Amino acid sequence: MKPTDDRLIVLAATDTVAVARCSIVAGAEVEIRGQTVTVAQAFSMGHKIAIRAMSKGDKVLKYGVSIGSATQAISVGDHVHLHNMQSDYTPTYALNEDGSVA
Questions:
Q1: Residues 20, 44: contact at Cβ < 8 Å?
Q2: Inter-residue contact 37 to 28 (CB < 8 Å)
Q3: What is the pTM of this model?
């Protein structure tokens, strides 16, 4: 497998996303499977970045298992989160700063 940036964690060859080991700022360049990609959106440690292009309905694979489906087309280097994927197993929700469900 071609090299991937040390700031990203990829555990399975089938994964479509990597997990950020640190915050990554918009405009940063990251190496994804040997390809240099400029990150359009900033994202925090623990968030996902696409390492393969996905179409709407494609499974999002993390650590070798499906964690949900793409709700729109996702390009390599895109931040993958509630705005472009949904869980296939539990309701997708976000928490407000006070801990209530958004």
A1: yes
A2: no
A3: 0.83
